[in-house]
Amino acid sequence: MEELEHTCPLPRTTLIEPAIFTPETSCECRAPHEKLTVEQARLGTPVDRPVRIYADGIFDLFHSGHARALMQAKNLFPNAYLIVGVCSDELTHKYKGFTVMTEDERYEALRHCRYVDEVLRDAPWTLTQEFLEKHKIDFVAHDDIPYSSAGSEDVYQHIKEAGMFVPTKRTEGISTSDLITRIVRDYDVYARRNLQRGYTAKELNVSYIKEKKYRLQNQVDRMKEKVRTVEEKSKHFVYRVEEKSHDLIQKWEEKSREFIGNFLELFGPDGTWKQMIQERSGRMIQALSPRCSPSSSPPRDFSPSRSPSPPSRWAMPRTSPPTSPKGASASISSMSEGDEDEK
């Protein structure tokens, strides 16, 4: 049993190295190779070797649809060893058409797929019994759609009849033909793109006039991009200015309300300023008024009953104005006589 385990290739459990290439001679598996049914394989039998599954194709422009088909094939049975056959450029160009990738590029793409254990180069277009026995293949995995080619309505028909076919499902929306269609449809876009990246018109197989046209279009696109960038920056600047303006207006309104409130509190009808003026006026009136005098003087009484105050010593007697110079001199002489009598 130990000798069989060492001579039979096992499924890869690590992803440190790419998948191996199938030897040119025959399968290295020396374990007894009895025919299996799908039910037996799903139960994990036989225990002494993995179930060998073969999936073939062109795998041009290797994409997620290819990878998902191989993932399904790898996980059909608990212990599976996946061999992937890749057809050569000669067979593919003969039966299907020109490829974008060379056969070596397609081989390497398959070697680096995590679900692949072994890559068989220059795979046959149709599978013979001799080929299946040589590589000890238990089952062939492919989508269930009839594949008409090489004069046959379905190249997998004899495999289905032998009970060795296990179907996988196609991934909708992705295929090599779809990818090529996208490139052809947008050919001008990709030609301009590669010219911009340094490829020559000769490498792209475009004429001199088309090259100048593409370069002019690239310049126009760059100018448009600059204008668009300036517009975006301008919009961003305007947005920032509007945002700042909104903040400033809001702060101004808050400060205005605060200022008006403080002003009314100070100068309003019942404001602090009025109270201060009244207090200061009262203190000034008290300071200027005599201490013995009442706070308010009584009104003056001009009634005739009130006796006039006695005349002062030095009060001048009231005399009527002289009517003549002689009268004036007599008055003066009488005043002088009166002074002498007092002496």
From TrEMBL:
Residues 54-182 form the Cytidyltransferase-like domain. Residues 289-306 have a biased composition (Low complexity). Its EC number is 2.7.7.15. It is an enzyme of class 2 (transferase). The keyword Nucleotidyltransferase applies. It comes from the Eukaryota. Catalyzes the key rate-limiting step in the CDP-choline pathway for phosphatidylcholine biosynthesis. Belongs to the cytidylyltransferase family. This is choline-phosphate cytidylyltransferase.
